[in-house]
Amino acid sequence: TGDEIDFEWVGKSPNEVQTNFYFNNVLDYTKMVPYNVGGNTAAEYHDYTIDWSPEALVWLVDGKVIRTVNRKDTFNPATNTYAYPTSKSRIAFSIWDGGNSGAQGTQEWSGYPTPWGANTMYQMLVDSVQISCGGDATHPPTTPPVTPPVTPPSSVYPTAVPSSPVTPPQKCIPRPKYY
């Protein structure tokens, strides 16, 4: 239904990770918050955690909280809704060429042009993925299956889908390590 919660690594800024979330197919890029990891994210492994509960979204890097969004702070009185992710979701990892996307704003954000050549190779290495979903009597805890990553330089798409809808969200804590 258009909800999304992100950690994004933009190649032109290797020391940075960006956090963002979207609600109901509304692409509001003004909510992106960058964080300086303190090292090159392409050369070191880090622990990235998204703790998604019915009341808050919390992003952590190496166990340190870097951002919190409280559901109560997303209320829009004009529409009488919370602009807070609540729909059934999936976990996805991918590598994509935003610099050559054709959309000017995306090109500026990601770095244009993306340098391509005969021997150019881009890769994303994932050391491990851990997904924990808590629940209640209506939504019991689940441990969704994770598809193993494809060997680089192909895109890496481990995907997990909770077995029950997430409305409001179960507490799901993806803990991937990236290289």
Describe the structure.
The chain is mainly β and 179 residues long. 4% of the residues lie in helices and 25% in strands. It has 1 helix and 10 strands. A 5-stranded antiparallel β-sheet has the order 6-5-4-10-9, with no helix packed on it. Strands 1-2-3 form a 3-stranded antiparallel β-sheet, with no helix packed on it. A two-stranded antiparallel ribbon has the order 7-8. The longest helix is centred in the middle third of the chain and has 7 residues. The two termini are 30 Å apart. The C terminus is likely disordered.
Quick synopsis:
The protein contains one helix and ten strands; from the N terminus they run E-E-E-E-E-E-E-E-H-E-E. The chain has one helix spanning 104-110, and strands at 4-8, 16-22, 33-36, 46-52, 56-61, 64-70, 75-76, 81-82, 126-128, 177-178.
How are the SSEs placed, and which strands pair?
Blueprint lengths: L3 E5 L7 E7 L10 E4 L9 E7 L3 E6 L2 E7 L4 E2 L4 E2 L21 H7 L15 E3 L48 E2 L1
Antiparallel strand pairs: 1-2, 2-3, 4-5, 4-10, 5-6, 7-8, 9-10
| Shape field | globular
Total strands: 10
Report, as a whole number of angstroms, the end-to-end distance.
30 Å
Secondary-structure-derived class: mainly beta
- Main sheet summary: 5 strands, antiparallel
The strands making up the biggest β-sheet line up spatially as 6-5-4-10-9
